């Protein structure tokens, strides 16, 4: 009997040791342990632990004392948004499930809205980088630098760009009223939303020169560029103008692929992260255009547009013409979370092949020429486009 009791005790102790070890292993390897509605979390500092405790205490106080019913999910989403907003980086953000779906629709170039790409300036205003080509925003004259301060009469000047975008978007063939601040002028606009399917590449032959406009870098931009460049080369062009004016950027890989088609073996761009890790994006030696190139840029040329323009300028493959570019030289990673929400976080800075950082600086054109007053206030032809005409002049020969 005594032996049986001892054996039973040994078994109980063994089981307890196994459970304890599993518990310890779970916390050590996953950082948390869930028991009912209790969560044990491993944090990196006492300050973080105190912050989480404070957050939960305040959440409970709101739930208990606020005069209306509260939504736990909305409160937690708001807390997470606040954490990202505290970084002061307009390109780093947390998206709810609906917001992330909307963001990804715009990133792929298919959505319903007005077709405008925005950012937040240093004062928090939602500011236009560029209107996408052939969209309602372009048709009503929304342009780089415009600030969206009201949507359907609601003051949105301090709501942040994500909230503004969600209000501007909507079903096709519905109207949205916008109040735009342009310098000291306030402009009231009514814009009819449309189904946006952005065509990012357009081309033509001007005299004996090829002209390719890239309005932004979408999923198929490099493929479309290759197809249209091949068609231009079949017409025996003697030079190429690449128009990146008011191009707000997009997929870095698309810009690198296009550079790969134009350049020989070289570094196109490299990034450096917080830990100092350097990552190079290179073109190979299989293709090189072998024609003189002029690239048009302006204050609306940003991000991937600056990567392509910077690579062409630094390697001596092209002459940059126009005005200083926007100056967005940081890279964002987009991550979808398991519940359908998502984050966009700046994780590195990029540099041109010669090591220049353009963030908040922009690219300086080799040939500076501003758009004419007529171009800024009217639709214009190729002949009236003074920047394009300068590019054709720089390329030389017959236009």
Automatic annotation (TrEMBL):
Positions of the PDZ domain: 100-195
Cited InterPro entries: ClpP/crotonase-like_dom_sf, CtpA/B_N, PDZ, PDZ_sf, Peptidase_S41A, Tail-specific_protease
Assigned keywords, A-Z: Hydrolase, Protease, Serine protease
SUPFAM superfamilies on file: ClpP/crotonase, PDZ domain-like
Highest taxon in the source lineage: Bacteria
Gene3D superfamilies: 2-enoyl-CoA Hydratase, Chain A, domain 1, 2.30.42.10, 3.30.750.44
Family matches, as PANTHER family: CARBOXY-TERMINAL PROCESSING PROTEASE CTPA, TAIL-SPECIFIC PROTEASE
Family of the protein in this entry: Belongs to the peptidase S41A family.
Name by which UniProt lists this protein: PDZ domain-containing protein
